[in-house]
Amino acid sequence: MSLRDRKKERTRRAIADAALRLFAERGFEAVTIADIAAAAEVGTRTLHRYYSGKDELLFAEDDEHRAELTRLLTDRPAGEDPEQTLAAVIGPMVSRFADRLDELRTRDALIAANPALQARDLAKRSAIEALLAERLASQMDVDPAADVRPLLWAKVGMACFFAGYEIWLRTGGALADHVTAARTALITELAATRGN
Questions:
Q1: Which domains does the chain have, with CATH numbers?
Q2: What would the pLDDT profile of 17-61 be if each residue is shown by its tens digit?
Q3: Residue 124 and residue 141: Cα distance in Å, rounded?
Q4: CB burial class (10 A; 0-12, 13-18, 19+) of residue 157?
Q5: What is d(CA 77, CA 84) in angstroms, rounded to the nearest whole number?
Q6: Phi and psi of 182, rounded to 5°?
Q7: Ramachandran region, residue 53 (left: φ > 0; alpha: ψ -120 to 50; beta: rest)
Q8: pTM of this structure
Q9: Could you report the per-residue pLDDT of 58-90, keeping only the tens digit for each?
Q10: CB atoms within 10 A of CB 24
């Protein structure tokens, strides 16, 4: 990154950190854009160059995550088993969150307390599912509108990630271990069901 880009990234991060701190102290609704700008020691115009509104501060990384996920999916070979693809792309995504437990606990508590933020979070998850399903359909060489398997695999992958993620938020430990445990538990449960 150039010096200019590093400076912009520091400013972006300072704004996001200040916002999260204020949201945790006062609640999401009680904090204004002016409050956040003052805490981050920037003007409101500067803040708006980085974030269009308050909710963007809690979902600022969405575009970056989708771009990374798209890149990871594009790199997977055609015809690969969907479970292998999901394991290969979820691993790097897990590493993006692994050392941010306190921050993400705060963020998720704020989202849980606000219906509009919950709706935004659900829309984000649906968009990721749709992206996964589309890419898996391409790999499987099937029509995503007619074949249920890509969407099913996308939902299974997301369910395993978020099951592990929620346990991690509650108990700590290693996020990767919780996500792996969720996948293992699913496989074990399916095998047990087949055996009955």
A1: 3-56 (1.10.10.60), 61-195 (1.10.357.10)
A2: 999 999 999 999 999 999 999 999 999 999 999 998 898 999 888
A3: 26
A4: buried
A5: 10
A6: -65, -45
A7: beta
A8: 0.86
A9: 988 888 889 999 999 999 998 999 999 998 999
A10: 17
